[in-house]
Specification:
Elements lengths: L1 E4 L1 H11 L14 E7 L4 E7 L3 E8 L1 E4 L1 E6 H10 L6 E5 L5 E6 L2 E6 L1 E2 L15 E4 H9 L16 E7 L2 E7 L3 E7 L15 E6 H12 L6 E7 L2 E5 L3 E6 L18 E6 H15 L5 E7 L4 E8 L3 E11 L5 E5 H8 L6 E6 L6 E5 L6 E5 L7
Antiparallel strand pairs: 1-5, 1-7, 2-3, 2-6, 3-4, 4-18, 6-10, 7-8, 8-9, 11-16, 12-13, 12-15, 13-14, 14-26, 16-17, 17-18, 19-22, 19-24, 20-21, 20-23, 21-22, 24-25, 25-26
Length: 383
């Protein structure tokens, strides 16, 4: 294998695929990235794969001879990142495929390699059916829910995002048992797909994998479409020059729809920015005591009072104007949960709806109905 390519493009590609390289590989080759040079297409592809998440990308290169080799991801990435972007990079593997020479205008490096034969192939979904999804909308669906997924591996099904595809709509949901984020989007799946279209598909994918999907989707142009292939236990996302593969999570995702109340006794309308700023300030104290903040209304003053107490340290009080038409209420929340969800909403005003201080509360944008729903379980107030 012999080729010349841009340092900047190679460095960018390495930073991307290295995210799928195993931190604690079960086999030495899984700590490597796979480089495949194709003189016919003039492209160099790079692949990282930890047997759960796989990322492949490609770049244009001047290729004298085709070939494939694997190199240690961490070492290779660090070398390339420190080489000058003013000079192209030359990669040459010897006939034994045990070593690769990296040459730039500033110097030459020799790196031990491993044969590409030992590198596992990315899973291929042997299914002609696929979806064409708007990249920008899909990135939004992931960004709006990923934050609410669990980090507790004991609840593995909750460490992912549940995706439901139905005709031209996508519904994404994530919960950690304390809060739930749901986003429903219409008209995001191409209707002129020539291939057979999936209908009523539900799949739960690991959050770690979807963060990488969201990362590359966010770099796409707003009108870009990506292909979504699904087979039992495996999903593949394909764009013009990138492939992301991920396993699915086993198990049945909770029926979260039954958690969302149909009616509410209390509805408060809040200025989102003012509410976030007040929460952010008072969280300095709340963080000292389990992140608990109390919210109470003063109907006479038309304000919402926010308080936090940290034993032996102090207390805080904030007040913001609100619109509401019910009796005065008091309810407590985890301030971190509120801030993470409210920062996802992009409208000027939001609605807080609930029935009692011990039942689920719902935060929604005030102008889009049920498109985005953020459910948070209150914290029980000790009298």
């Amino acid at each position: 294998m012999k080729l010349v390519c841009s340092q900047t493009e190679l460095n960018t590609a390495l930073q991307l695929v290295s995210r799928a390289v195993a931190n604690r590989p079960t086999h030495p080759v899984l700590a490597n990235v796979l480089l495949t040079a194709d003189a016919g297409t003039g492209k160099l592809s790079l692949t990282g794969f930890d047997l759960n998440l796989g990322i492949q990308t490609s770049l244009i290169a001047s290729i004298d001879s085709s070939g494939a080799i694997t190199l240690p991801s961490k070492l290779f990435s660090e070398i390339i990142s420190k080489l000058s972007s003013d000079s192209p990079i030359t990669l040459i593997s010897d006939d034994s495929k045990e070593q690769v020479q990296i040459t730039s205008k500033s110097g030459t490096y020799q790196v031990r390699s491993m044969t590409a034969d030992d590198f596992p192939e990315l899973p291929i979904v042997e299914n002609e059916s696929f979806l064409k999804i708007n990249a920008s909308s899909f990135a939004n669906s992931l960004r709006s829910t990923l934050f609410a997924s669990s980090t507790d591996e004991a609840k593995q099904i909750l460490t992912g995002v549940n995706l439901s595809f139905n005709k031209n709509s996508i519904k994404s949901a994530a919960t950690d048992g304390h809060r739930l984020a749901v986003l429903s989007l219409q008209d995001v799946i191409s209707s002129d797909n020539e291939s057979k279209i999936y209908e009523n598909i539900e799949v739960t994918l690991p959050s770690r994998s979807l963060r990488e999907v969201e990362r590359f989707l966010s770099s796409c142009k707003s009108d870009t479409e990506i292909s979504f292939f699904y087979d039992q236990g495996q999903v593949v996302f394909i764009s013009s020059d990138q492939i992301v593969t991920t396993r699915t999570l086993d198990g049945t995702y909770p029926n979260y729809n039954q958690l969302i109340p149909d009616e509410f006794q209390h509805t408060l309308e809040l200025d989102r920015k003012n509410f976030i700023l007040a929460l952010d300030r008072i969280s300095v104290l709340a963080e000292q005591h389990n992140n608990v903040i109390k919210i109470s209304t003063d109907k006479k003053q038309s304000v919402l009072n926010i308080t936090a107490e940290a034993q032996d340290l102090g207390s805080g009080f904030e007040s913001i104007p609100i619109n509401f038409d019910s009796d005065d209420i008091e309810i407590a929340f985890n301030s971190r949960y509120l801030l993470e969800g409210l920062k996802i909403i992009d409208t000027d005003s939001i609605l807080l709806k609930f029935n009692a201080p011990t039942t689920p509360a719902i935060f929604t944008p005030s102008d889009d109905g049920k498109q985005f729903i953020y459910l948070v379980m209150p914290v029980q107030i000790r009298s």
